[in-house]
């Protein structure tokens, strides 16, 4: 019972962060899922693959619930979301097929990749926290820049299970000087589309090692469903909360949680 309660709480926190920051809930899911999979007996050689696949599933629901709330408030940008999503799906599926779902991508490699990306994200977050008032939105978006953003976001999502928002938001806010709240809304829309595509891909994959637990590809619904239920409850609240809290405060809270994840992954490597 405690096992499922922990997963449910992870879903609550992941959904809240998704709505609050626009990065999906993967930041929480990749923290808790490796522990859950080792606990239920998933072979350590494939913990990374199961973590990424199920984190993306939870991230899909967290981002989708938050996006629905934005649509209801007429905060939706389909053109930008579509352009970024197309390239994001392409790069994400290719990275999953040729890098992640292979014997090369071990738990140790996964942790190193997550640490590197987290450190870069931390530096970007702290820098942006000081510059939020300087962002001025441009009227014309650059399609090539959107495509490059999507390629980068999809690759990061596939390698880490984080969803891609950690790439999309800095790229849009710094590269196009887009207002940060709009960048978060676009990020959630892209994460919803991209993570769904990668989840469907993982559903039809064949794990390298057999496991005793029921599964479909790399998805284990017994683990992911409690997380999904948690996101359903908290994602909308996260969106509402983001409208009341200063962006700089959100950035510092996010940075604090990133530090916790980095510390945990460093301990696992040691």
TrEMBL record:
Major localization class: membrane
InterPro entries reported in the protein's UniProt record: TM_pro_TauE-like (IPR002781), TSUP/Inactive_protease-like (IPR051598)
Domain of life from the UniProt record: Bacteria
Keyword Cytoplasm included in the entry's annotation: no
Listed PANTHER family: MEMBRANE TRANSPORTER PROTEIN MJ0441-RELATED, MEMBRANE TRANSPORTER PROTEIN YJNA-RELATED
UniProt entry keywords in alphabetical sequence: Cell membrane, Membrane, Transmembrane, Transmembrane helix
Protein name: Probable membrane transporter protein
Species name: Marivirga lumbricoides
Family classification: Belongs to the 4-toluene sulfonate uptake permease (TSUP) (TC 2.A.102) family.
Cited Pfam families: TauE
Intracellular or extracellular location(s): Cell membrane; Membrane
Coiled coil, from the record: none
Residues passing through the membrane, by range: 12-42, 48-68, 80-99, 105-124, 145-173, 185-204, 216-239, 245-263
Membrane topology: Multi-pass membrane protein
């Amino acid at each position: 019972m405690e096992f499922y309660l922990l997963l449910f709480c992870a879903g609550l926190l992941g959904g809240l962060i998704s709505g609050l920051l626009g990065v999906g809930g993967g930041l929480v899911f990749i923290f808790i899922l490796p522990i859950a999979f080792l606990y239920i007996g998933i072979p350590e050689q494939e913990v990374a693959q199961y973590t990424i696949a199920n984190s993306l599933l939870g991230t899909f629901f967290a981002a989708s619930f938050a996006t629905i709330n934005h649509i209801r408030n007429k905060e939706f940008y389909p053109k930008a979301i579509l352009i970024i999503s197309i390239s994001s799906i392409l790069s994400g599926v290719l990275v999953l097929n040729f890098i992640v779902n292979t014997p090369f991508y071990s738990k140790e490699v996964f942790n190193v990749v997550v640490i590197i990306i987290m450190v870069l994200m931390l530096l970007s977050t702290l820098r942006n926290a000081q510059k939020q008032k300087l962002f001025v939105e441009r009227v014309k978006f650059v399609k090539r820049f959107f495509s490059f953003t999507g390629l980068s976001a999809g690759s990061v999502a596939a390698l880490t299970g984080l969803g891609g928002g950690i790439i999309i938001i800095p790229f849009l806010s710094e590269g196009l000087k887009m207002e940060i709240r709009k960048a978060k809304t676009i990020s959630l829309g892209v994460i919803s589309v991209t993570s769904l595509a990668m989840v469907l891909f993982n559903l039809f994959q064949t794990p390298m090692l057999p496991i005793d637990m029921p599964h479909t590809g790399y998805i284990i619904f017994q683990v992911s469903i409690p997380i999904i239920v948690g996101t359903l409850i908290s994602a909308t609240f996260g969106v509402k909360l983001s409208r009341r809290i200063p962006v700089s405060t959100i950035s510092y809270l996010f940075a604090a949680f990133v530090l916790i994840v980095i510390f945990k992954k460093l301990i696992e490597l040691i």
